[in-house]
TrEMBL record:
Annotated protein name in UniProt: DNA 3'-5' helicase
Highest taxon of source: Bacteria
Family, as annotated: Belongs to the helicase family. UvrD subfamily.
Catalytic activity: Couples ATP hydrolysis with the unwinding of duplex DNA by translocating in the 3'-5' direction; ATP + H2O = ADP + phosphate + H(+)
Organism: Denitratisoma oestradiolicum
Gene: uvrD
Top EC class, one word: isomerase
GO molecular function, one term: hydrolase activity
Amino acid sequence: MNHLLENLNPEQLAAVTLPPQHALILAGAGSGKTRVLTTRIAWLISTRQVTPQGILAVTFTNKAAKEMLARLSALLPINTRGMWIGTFHGLCNRLLRAHYRDAGLPQLFQILDIADQQAAIKRLLKALNVDDEKFPPRDLQHFINAQKEQGLRSAAVEAWDDHTRRRVELYAAYEQQCQREGVVDFAELLLRCYELLERNEPLRRHYQERFRHILVDEFQDTNILQYRWLKLLAGHAERGRAAGPSQGAAALSMEAASAAEPPSPPPLGRGMGGGCMECACMFAVGDDDQSIYGFRGAEIGNMRDFEREFQVDNIIRLEQNYRSHGNILDAANAIIKNNEKRLGKNLWTDAGSGEPIRVFEAMSDGEEARWIVEEVRALSRDGHARREIALLYRSNAQSRILEHSLFSAGIPYRVYGGLRFFERQEIKHALAYLRLIANSDDDTAFARVVNFPARGIGARSIEALQDAARAAGSSLFAAIPQVPGKAGASLAAFAALIESMRPALDLPLPELVDHVVELSGLRLHYLNEKEGQERLANLDELLNAATSFVAEEGREVMEPEEAESTGEPTGELSADLAAFLTHAALEAGEHQAGEGDDALQLMTVHSAKGLEFNVVFMSGLEEGLFPHENSVQEAKGLEEERRLMYVAVTRARQRLYLSFAQTRMLHGQTRYSLPSRFIDEIPGELLKWLTPKAKKGGYAYEVADAFTPSPRSRVSSGGGLRVGQNVAHARFGQGVIVNAEGSGSDARVQVNFGPAGMKWLALSVAKLEAL
Ligand code: ATP
Ligand code: MG
């Protein structure tokens, strides 16, 4: 057992070997929180305080869960398969699969990913004749998810105005539609699981007695509902929030009022602060400085509430960072110091200062991407493995140009998130057929493929079908016999096609997939399509994915024990299909085909959380992009962006690159930007500029600065104007040129208009008067 505890510092050791009690590990990036959590699981098991089945551990990504399981297998001679270690979504899905009937779901319920959900909402709005300008589907989607994440069903949402009232009605209609179709969205997985446990006492007791230790990584990013779910599973009395009427408290009390159960007993208060004799021990690790999901309803207040409600008197702080070299850590500390609302901690390392942080300013996003390619090549020549190099960006839209350059240069890369394998058109089509043969009431899948490949079922026929379905209160598929005439005949032929595929459910999963791709006509369709080669290759890849899925994790979702507890026969083969479809919806972005390859890692900063790389490129460090323009209006938003930057910087072990571009094409528009303020927040002595140092701040209107001719102006004159010259503009007033580039009709200048801000203006368009 001792080898488990080797290589832990005293604080880490204390955390790993805490007696059974609730604990909060509050510590900065790279201080070993995840390592402590994993080691504690191993220690608890190896000292026989708990069996592997008695552990429930929540990780932030599936990738993290896999790593945790791999580490556990390395530490202990146990079979980790079947252990309850996963994401909130993954664990809830597993519970719902095991108890689908109690949860009011069909056995093969399907999961709607974000795009499916949006499509479902669009379909709903259309069916109800709702003006989608007044109620944009995206807004409604956001509204619905936000309610669910607070634990609110449509019936519990209070609407204060007509618009909200209508949105709540639409939320209710959406709930009905999903129920009818037997589909659940991501937020529903959690809410449904929470309700299942809350209302079903025997089931709740079963799991409460089973899970003796609950461990949660990245606790700072849990939302209200997730925290309540944890409390419920821990068997901890729900007592609302004494701290005052926050939104969360409102949600809690409302929910409590409508709950089928009588109010829970008073606090544990067994006079042994933080003890967990009758409930599970909660072990939460987190870092308030890395809370980056506030925009999606995560509640940093959960940390405070946890401390109070579980009477945690063990808050362990870890301050030594084992990940990054000193300069990187100093930069991270300097950045985060600008935030006001912090629990406060500082990280140190004995790893030495290491290399300076490299900063690169590009003229354009294209130049930035080309520079990254060159730098990556040089790193490879120096012996750096590509999988140890991460390319981070603030938003997914930025990846396109980076991908383009990497692709042209023949550098293998893998994108996490973004348009993922399972989100590609042809894959979604194939999955929709599979979903439909598993559950013909799945209208989302139906709508996707009823006329793909084209079989002459036009918009009119679909409308007639929708009317019939609405009148009968049935699914689209079930309403087919009601549609008369030619339309009815084409639809009936489609129904027959689906029925003809159903016997294939008895085949092993890979054969089933192959069969469906063939019979549906998808393969033929792409064979005949001019650019169909890649899509065909992807369909083949789907087959491979199904094959390796069965080999690696088939039926993991339905453990015999859980199946028994429901007393239901599970139907092995359909369970394979269900598990595979779930895998496609939930795990898609995190491991794609050929994961073992040595590929550069591309991802947003959000998805980089918890990970580490030898080399990190943080690209697109521009005002408006990072910090994001939607965030800078209020301190709260800006502080979240800064925490995101802190996460980005602290991913790097040895080398960190920061880069920005003066111009960038985003969403079809060229943007002219200034360097991110976050670069300025890093002490100059930690930085090494690879290009001449950028001029200081455009966001602070430093007019004095503006009179110094810019060292990086790339043209000496633009249309007779020069850097430093005072100018006037009809709309922005008087200003001074601080920068210029391009020539002829491409010439543009950057002007500091003082109160009106800093602007890039094309001289061919803007009328500037020299003063
Ligand atoms: P984050 O906040 O980014 O999630 P973390 O606090 O979870 O970070 P870990 O990922 O657990 O940190 O650890 C960071 C790195 O430091 C890992 O590579 C880990 O193996 C290593 N590490 C942690 N503790 C020690 C230690 N005592 N000795 C040597 N290496 C350690
Ligand atoms: Mg971690």
